[in-house]
Amino acid sequence: MGWAGFLLRRFAGTAAVVLLLSVGVFLLLYLAPGSIQQTLLGTRPATAETIAAIQARHHLNDPVALQYLRWFGDVLRGDLGTSIRTGMPVSDMLGQRLPLTLALVGYGTLLAALAGIPLGVLGALRRGRVTDRLVVTAGVVGLSAPPFAVGLLLLVVFALWLGWFPVYGTGQGAGDQLWHLTLPAAALALGAVGLLIRFGRAALVREMEQDYVVFARARGLSGPLVLGYAMRNSLVPILTAAGLVVTGMLAGTVLVEVTFALPGLGSLLVDSVTFKDVPVVQALALLLTVLISGVNLLVDIGYSIIDPRVRLGRSVS
Amino acid sequence: MSRRVPVGVSVSLAVLAAVAVAAAFAPWLVPGATAQDLMTGISGPGPGHPLGTDDLGRDVLQLLVAGARTAVPGALAVAAGSMLIGNLIGLAAGYFGGWVDTLAMRWADLMFSLPALLVAIVVAGVLGGGYGPAIGVLVVLFAPTDTRVVRGAVLEQRHRPYIEAALLKNLSSWRIMTRHIWPNIASVALASAFLNFAYALVSLSSLSFLGLGVPAGSPDWGRTLADNRTQLLANPWAVVAPGLAIIATAAALNIVGDWLHERVDRRGRTR
């Protein structure tokens, strides 16, 4: 199978998943307790005019399938509806809060890579010794500890007791903002560090046992050079981990933003869910669906770049 | 295979034993854990309150013990529910193969690509029923883990002579799957359910932290954290103690779960 066919199949698969999940996202409106008019009215008074306006806006008298198609069409045109809580267009609300979440996730990913990859390599090279066992244990703790508990502990230790970081707020100016985001990013990164240690270490341990590594060593190749070969071959499991890191961060950012009272997309999701602001919840759920499907697609394409056998329809070793 | 239990695993087992005791006997150990004393309010550690009190004047140490009792039943329900569904689908997928298998695996792939916690936040939040819907959502999203593990184990058993013998005796597929295959793969299924229990405990405490799980005022670790995080200066222990309890329990569950998984995996290979 060639590149074009491969890409086409993967794109079609992703599109199918996104469409399927978009139906679920649309039906969230029907999941909320009480009538749909009530949900969409929120705290506004239920007069004949407001109800008529909502029925017209959401085409509530049409069959459900048609309602879905209209809603999906609006979404494709960039119209995500109006928030029940604030009365603002949903797309504006997302736009306001997106930069902070992107910065937080980006910073967290950077910290995770800087800590997780070296620790995984260290564990693999010192396999079975005390260092390795410490690294593995730290990885399991990082992987299992929920970000909100970690975040609050970091807050108490580094902000309250040591006073190195601010307790709340987002800061002014780039440097100050970065300083304010450090603890939240660290809390977010911990789970990803655990994932990178687990996948990276296991992959590298497997590669270091291969014949080509023994042979390269016997030929007198330098340690770093051999490590380079082994690391390139352990990229496939690390890519799997990278996909899990991104989805984990999207879930983690919700908890971290609430913990540190940061105005990002995650805290918006919790506020909207608590208020039953269904249009905002739908928009966020759809955004997350697209992001996660996109990441999974990129990981799939990444596999076939690293290991051409994947593209030829053979399974990843 | 060495018979020695690693240090980390023994420490974890001790932590889990303490949590289990607290969960089982909390009403007798700390009968007045939820008794409020608004006159005292929040205060730091002092005589009578080794970890201080929270904003409702409740003793933090007693809340910690009572919190174990709130944490365990919900997580058990998720682990048991997803084990039932996951095992049935996994058995069918591995035993029948063909389109049943394809369908089950595509379903598992789809569920795997969804972050369970986010789906639980959205669905449980919009439904607004609190703990019940959250448990339902987690059961559905955790089941595929069991499905994959069980299917793999069934594939290994599928062509063994005892199944041929059972088929020759004209036993029904249901009977072969549940009475003959499942007992052989029970250890793998239980190890997988144990790890699901760990994830469920963390997910449910996260939901409670966000205010989407247990009702306000319940002695839940996540909820206690959320209720006291604005009072960090008055008594940081009201936040540190439940935070450490969640992290220690979650880490201990995962360490023991990984160890169990490795053990049953190895046994399967040597047999």
UniProtKB/TrEMBL annotation, chain A:
<keyword id="KW-0812">Transmembrane</keyword>
<feature type="domain" description="ABC transmembrane type-1">
    <location>
        <begin position="98"/>
        <end position="299"/>
    </location>
</feature>
<keyword id="KW-1003">Cell membrane</keyword>
<keyword id="KW-1133">Transmembrane helix</keyword>
<keyword id="KW-0472">Membrane</keyword>
<feature type="transmembrane region" description="Helical">
    <location>
        <begin position="235"/>
        <end position="260"/>
    </location>
</feature>
<dbReference type="Pfam" id="PF19300">
    <property type="entry name" value="BPD_transp_1_N"/>
</dbReference>
<dbReference type="Pfam" id="PF00528">
    <property type="entry name" value="BPD_transp_1"/>
</dbReference>
<protein>
    <submittedName>
        <fullName>ABC transporter permease</fullName>
    </submittedName>
</protein>
<keyword id="KW-0813">Transport</keyword>
<feature type="transmembrane region" description="Helical">
    <location>
        <begin position="280"/>
        <end position="306"/>
    </location>
</feature>
<dbReference type="InterPro" id="IPR000515">
    <property type="entry name" value="MetI-like"/>
</dbReference>
<comment type="similarity">
    <text>Belongs to the binding-protein-dependent transport system permease family.</text>
</comment>
<dbReference type="GO" id="GO:0071916">
    <property type="term" value="F:dipeptide transmembrane transporter activity"/>
</dbReference>
<feature type="transmembrane region" description="Helical">
    <location>
        <begin position="98"/>
        <end position="122"/>
    </location>
</feature>
<feature type="transmembrane region" description="Helical">
    <location>
        <begin position="181"/>
        <end position="200"/>
    </location>
</feature>
<dbReference type="InterPro" id="IPR045621">
    <property type="entry name" value="BPD_transp_1_N"/>
</dbReference>
<dbReference type="GO" id="GO:0005886">
    <property type="term" value="C:plasma membrane"/>
</dbReference>
<feature type="transmembrane region" description="Helical">
    <location>
        <begin position="134"/>
        <end position="161"/>
    </location>
</feature>
<feature type="transmembrane region" description="Helical">
    <location>
        <begin position="12"/>
        <end position="32"/>
    </location>
</feature>
<dbReference type="InterPro" id="IPR035906">
    <property type="entry name" value="MetI-like_sf"/>
</dbReference>
Automatic annotation (TrEMBL), chain B:
<dbReference type="GO" id="GO:0055085">
    <property type="term" value="P:transmembrane transport"/>
</dbReference>
<keyword id="KW-0472">Membrane</keyword>
<keyword id="KW-1003">Cell membrane</keyword>
<dbReference type="GO" id="GO:0005886">
    <property type="term" value="C:plasma membrane"/>
</dbReference>
<feature type="domain" description="ABC transmembrane type-1">
    <location>
        <begin position="72"/>
        <end position="257"/>
    </location>
</feature>
<feature type="transmembrane region" description="Helical">
    <location>
        <begin position="116"/>
        <end position="143"/>
    </location>
</feature>
<dbReference type="InterPro" id="IPR035906">
    <property type="entry name" value="MetI-like_sf"/>
</dbReference>
<protein>
    <submittedName>
        <fullName>ABC transporter permease</fullName>
    </submittedName>
</protein>
<keyword id="KW-1133">Transmembrane helix</keyword>
<keyword id="KW-0813">Transport</keyword>
<feature type="transmembrane region" description="Helical">
    <location>
        <begin position="237"/>
        <end position="261"/>
    </location>
</feature>
<dbReference type="Pfam" id="PF00528">
    <property type="entry name" value="BPD_transp_1"/>
</dbReference>
<keyword id="KW-0812">Transmembrane</keyword>
<feature type="transmembrane region" description="Helical">
    <location>
        <begin position="6"/>
        <end position="30"/>
    </location>
</feature>
<dbReference type="InterPro" id="IPR000515">
    <property type="entry name" value="MetI-like"/>
</dbReference>
<dbReference type="InterPro" id="IPR050366">
    <property type="entry name" value="BP-dependent_transpt_permease"/>
</dbReference>
<feature type="transmembrane region" description="Helical">
    <location>
        <begin position="75"/>
        <end position="96"/>
    </location>
</feature>
<comment type="similarity">
    <text>Belongs to the binding-protein-dependent transport system permease family.</text>
</comment>
<feature type="transmembrane region" description="Helical">
    <location>
        <begin position="181"/>
        <end position="202"/>
    </location>
</feature>
